[in-house]
Amino acid sequence: MTQKLGSFPGGLILDGHKKQSTQVAIRKMPLSKKLVLPLQQHIGEASTAIVSVGTKVLKGQKIAKAEGHVSVYLHAPSSGTITAIDEQPVPHPSGLSALCISIETDGLDQWTKREPTKDFTSLSGHEIRHIIREAGIVGLGGAGFPSFIKLNPGIHHNVETLIINGVECEPYITCDDMIMRERTEGILDGIEIICFALRVKQCVIAIEDNKPEAIAAVERALSSRLDLTSTKVVIIPTRYPAGSEKQLIQVVTGKQVPSRGLPIDIGVVCHNVGTAYAIARAINHGEPSISRIVTVTGKNVEHAGNFETLFGTPMHELLTFCGTKRQSDEPFILGGPMMGYNLSGDHLPVTKTSNCILVGVDDSAEASTPLPCIRCGECATACPVSLLPQQLYWHSRAKDLEKANEYNLFDCIECGCCSYVCPSEIPLVHYFRFAKTEIMNQQQESAKSDVARIRHENRLARIEQEQQEKNLRQKQRKAALAASQAAKAKAAELVVETTTDNQEHN
Amino acid sequence: MSLSRLSSPFLSGTNRVTLQMLQLLVALIPAVVAIVYFFGPSVLVTITLATVIALLAETLMLWMRNRPLKPFLTDGSAVVTAVLLAIALPPLAPWWLTTIGILFAIIFAKHLYGGLGYNPFNPAMVAYVLLLISFPLEMTTWLPMASLSDQPHDINTAFQFIFSGQWSGSIDTMSGATPLDTMKTQIGLAQMPSYIIQQPLFGLFGGKGWEWINIWLAVGGIYLLYRRVISWHIPVAMLVGLSVISLITWLIAPELTGSPLFHLVSGGTMLGAFFIATDPVSASTTVKGKIVYGAGVGLLTYIIRIWGGYPDGVAFAVLIMNMLVPLIDYYTQPRVYGAMR
């Protein structure tokens, strides 16, 4: 059955550079002596450590608990001893440090007790979400949003379509491609569980047509699974950024996620293929999320490939393992060349969202002085969201943030297509990120001052009220006094009157 | 190793401003060859003069504005302005006419508004209109076509005339009117257009020579479309706009106008459609806006040609539509992904 696909405007046909890292099967990265685990590897609240320095931990043992709703648990990726809970540099564009748990591994890699579920259909949706939250699973496509939340259809929604994202549209990255080729059954197991938890009607596995091996593997595995009849593979044309959630939904369903809304508002939920695999491991094998597939590739990498890497493994070990030619302070990219970010130090841990380490990009953009915008409109043609980047640039540059917001700045997905096509080499996305942060700061500031203002007004109102109450009481007291005096006087009068009356009567 | 960018995307396409400008110049070559063939080599002198003056003026202004010289002198925009104006000027335009035009284009229309990317009006057209209003005689005295002239000029006589005003032949052999001008004046004298085009000045569908120059400009324009330097919206909208209004008038009142085909291949139609109205800096940028803008240029061109005071209206039409660009852009924003209908 072929389904008519939708399409999104703009986008780019990019050179994939995928072959370099798909020549060899997924390899296991050797165990590192020391693992450093940031407490925040996901979107939401950071986890809270539940171990202390000196504690011996086993592989898969919980070491930090979820804090608040949008948060997940964190586990020891291998057995060993907790050596520190302190600030460590983490992979972040700003190069900042954050609270991390450090584990010195003992080399035994000894598992804690695992509790696999034999038949997940005996569980309720709630129980499945609970296990997945406790297993620390977040979206492995790159954003790192806690997965259990996206397994909850809620009471107001009916999930029509589950989209399993195997698009991987960014050049160089191949971890999803390889996991689809090699761990197909696991992905399908995960899809079964997700469909069950979401009570979803149909599932689509979306793969770009530049991955024939992955498509063949998934189709072959799917044909022998009689339980997955409502799941089908949809081959989508290779065009960046087809793997971006909103654009993928537009391609697969033809529908658009409302601005500032969620896919579930139109009955769609998206999960990455790697996440589906992790979910299957958690439910069917009782294994929490402690490792991921990392692509290491680029012009300067000798043995490029995909590596199953424990979280917390230092990046320099991965780079050395792959035979990377680079100066120790030479920057490299975490993520893809279109949306990733530059890191300068390599003593940083691999985290749940580290999908690709890219050292050396062909045709890389140079930091040249941009020419002025000539309003050619190439950026607007390339924009998959139909924004007008040149107008946004104009207003962001002038710091006219209100105007930038009016031109839908916050609908920008920062895919980089506009910067790519700009003939004046203007780093447009850079300006948009800046403007977004400025607006968010302003909103925070104004929220703060709003709170202060409301507090102040409440205080004034309270004082006013107290004063009024005081006045009222005073008045009442005066009135009471006057009344009692009047009553006394009246009583006296009455006495006089009665006496006179009596006298009159007499 | 070259310094890479600080933030994503780390890839960049191959499109560059200079490349676009160069392709524009390449696309003008066939038309320049045609002009030389029909009107003699004097246009080459004017192009060279205009380019030199433009680069000097650009250097002066960049220096005065404390802007880096190299990126802006090599971006090609000054040369494009110079060549476009030179092609639009009459073949034997005296040197001072060209110089005044270029200086005004570069200094006033471009740099005083902020230089490359900031000029709301097309510099070449601003200069053209300034010259047309200030020096109407020089701007409308066209050479007769080489084949119609008894004394075709060569490069030496062109030089001599442009720089000294000396002409070896009689003054009559060097002055003539353009086909558009002739059409306008003779219609004013109550001649039928169908009769006017019988005259030797006219060719197959338009003015002799002019029609071929316009066709070669269109060929250059198609090259620009193919190389994706320009998009189809503005030229198509302008040509359709011009055709539709001239067709309607031609059907209702044939005594007022030449045929739609005559208008398509006359005067600055093709230069305007593919090289002037498509100037990204001063044109509309949204897709719908480009169509509105192009159609506006087409309609106004015709209205000025038929009912205005000047034989050709492309330059005025472009400037008027330039003025409306902010308004057009504001009301033709595309619907953003996920926006409520």
Secondary structure tally: strands of chain A? 17
User: What string gives the helices and strands of chain B in order?
Assistant: HHHHHHHHHHHHHHHHH
Strand order of the largest sheet of chain A: 1-14-13-17-15-16
CATH fold title of the largest domain in chain A: Rossmann fold
- Whole-angstrom Rg of chain A: 32 Å
Strand content of chain B: under 5%
Overall SS class of chain A: alpha/beta
The low-confidence runs of chain A, each spanning 5 or more residues with pLDDT under 50, are none
Topology overview:
The complex is a heterodimer of chains A (506) and B (341).
Chain A: E1 27-28, E2 34-38, E3 48-49, E4 56-57, E5 62-65, E6 74-75, E7 80-89, E8 97-105, H1 125-134, E9 161-166, H2 175-182, H3 184-198, E10 202-208, H4 212-223, E11 231-236, H5 245-253, E12 268-272, H6 273-285, E13 291-297, E14 305-310, H7 315-321, E15 332-334, E16 341-343, E17 356-358, H8 378-382, H9 389-397, H10 401-406, H11 417-421, H12 428-505
Helix pairs in contact in A: 1-3, 2-4, 3-6, 9-12
Chain B: H1 17-39, H2 42-64, H3 69-73, H4 77-88, H5 95-110, H6 123-134, H7 136-140, H8 155-164, H9 171-174, H10 179-188, H11 193-196, H12 210-226, H13 233-252, H14 260-264, H15 269-276, H16 287-307, H17 314-331
Question: What attributes characterize this protein structure?
Answer:
heterodimer; A: 506 residues; alpha/beta; Rossmann fold; Fumarate Reductase Iron-sulfur Protein, Chain B, domain 2; 2 domains; 6-stranded mixed sheet; 16% strand; B: 341 residues; mainly alpha; 17 helices; 62% helix; globular
Description:
The complex is a heterodimer of chains A (506) and B (341). With 506 residues, chain A is an alpha/beta fold. Chain A has two domains: 316 residues, NADH-ubiquinone oxidoreductase 51kDa subunit (Rossmann fold), CATH 3.40.50; 136 residues, Fumarate Reductase Iron-sulfur Protein, Chain B, domain 2 (Orthogonal Bundle), CATH 1.10.1060. Helices cover 35% and strands 16% of the residues of chain A. Chain A is built from twelve helices and 17 strands. In chain A, the strands form four sheets. Chain A has a six-stranded mixed sheet with strand order 1-14-13-17-15-16, with helices on both faces. In chain A, strands 2-8-7-4 form a four-stranded antiparallel sheet, with no helix packed on it. Chain A is globular and about 125 Å long. By secondary structure, chain B is mainly α. Chain B folds into two domains: 162 residues, no CATH class; 153 residues, no CATH class. Helix content of chain B is 62%, strand content 0%. Chain B has 17 helices and no strands. In chain B, helix 1 runs antiparallel to helix 12. The longest helix of chain B is centred in the first third of the chain and has 23 residues. The N and C termini of chain B lie far apart (49 Å). Chains A and B meet through helix 8, helix 11 and helix 12 of A and helix 1 of B.
